[in-house]
Design brief:
By secondary structure, this protein is α/β, with parallel strands linked by helices. The chain has a single domain (29-224), classed as TIM Barrel (Alpha-Beta Barrel), CATH 3.20.20. It is built from nine helices and eight strands. It has helices at 4-21, 40-49, 59-68, 88-94, 104-113, 140-151, 171-190, 206-211, 221-224; strands at 30-34, 53-56, 76-79, 97-101, 121-126, 156-162, 197-199, 216-219. An eight-stranded parallel sheet has the order 7-6-5-4-3-2-1-8. It is globular, with a radius of gyration of 17 Å. Bound molecules: pyridoxal-5'-phosphate (PLP). Residues 34, 36, 57, 80, 164, 202-204, 218-222 line the site of pyridoxal-5'-phosphate. The site of pyridoxal-5'-phosphate has 13 residues, from strand 8 and helix 9.
Length: 237
């Protein structure tokens, strides 16, 4: 079985190939290592390979792992999971980024709870690009208003947009969902709101996401291996 270093090199080379195929600058995509359900030891191992940005989905795991790994000075935590208003404080205190902000109340709490000694919390607004009623994310029609309001909050820095597309084997349908996120970024820019980040693409579809403009790809399985029921909060998938 491949070592974590080999898997990390493999993912980095997938990213580089996709960037070259898309005729984009070589440093235009950042790899976020999604470590949810995996232990602090696995994160430390990948950190020592050279990886710096790690993504967590569950507030409790973020709290525990950020305490356990506080000696890794350059480790940067990204919160990417569903955010409930009673759980915002830990994210405001431990994360450098929150990718899953989809309503004003959450943004206001993160802003109020962000400690003054830390730099502003970097924010992506999660957009529901598939239109599925069950999905989290702000509706595309409501994005501009939310973005303008969030931009005015202190202690936050609005950086970009994030999406989790509807899973599908249809590559064109998948690409169209990523493309919608890029189009929304352009529409905001046309109205004077410049954002530099598109957080989209995971283990199975990072090439398609990079072709459509992703600047952060969130990769778990391809780095750490499959999440099993014994290490997962979300059950089999
Ligand atoms: C789990 C997760 C990922 C990583 O998915 P993989 O398929 O394991 O690469 C990315 N983004 C979010 C929001 C996730 O919950």
């Amino acid at each position: 079985m491949a070592t974590i270093f080999e898997r990390w090199q493999g993912v980095l080379s997938r990213v580089q190939t996709a960037v070259i195929m898309a005729h984009r600058p070589t440093d235009s995509v950042t790899l976020l290592a999604v470590s949810k359900t995996f232990p602090s030891e696995a994160i430390a191992e990948l950190y020592h390979c050279g990886q710096r940005a790690f993504g967590e989905n569950y507030v409790q795991e973020l709290t525990e792992k950020s305490a356990a790994l506080s000696h890794l000075a350059e480790l940067e935590w990204h919160f990417i999971g569903p955010l409930q208003s009673n759980k915002t404080r830990a994210v405001a205190e431990h994360a450098a980024w929150a990718h899953s902000v989809d309503r004003l109340k959450i943004a206001e709490r993160l802003s109020a709870q962000r400690p003054n000694h830390l730099p502003p919390l970097q924010i992506c607004l999660q957009v529901n690009v598939s239109g599925e009623a069950s999905k989290s994310g702000v509706a595309p029609e409501q994005l501009a208003e939310l973005a303008q309001t969030v931009r005015g909050l202190p202690r936050l820095q609005l950086r970009g947009l994030m999406c989790i597309p509807e899973p599908t084997d249809n590559v064109e349908l998948l690409a169209s969902q990523f493309r919608l996120l890029a189009q929304l970024q352009h529409q905001l820019a046309d109205n004077g709101l410049l954002l530099d980040t598109l957080s989209m693409g995971m283990s199975a579809d990072l090439e398609t996401a990079i072709a459509e403009g992703a600047t952060i790809v969130r990769v778990g399985t391809a780095l750490f291996g499959a999440r099993t029921t014994s290490n997962s909060h979300e059950g089999p998938r």
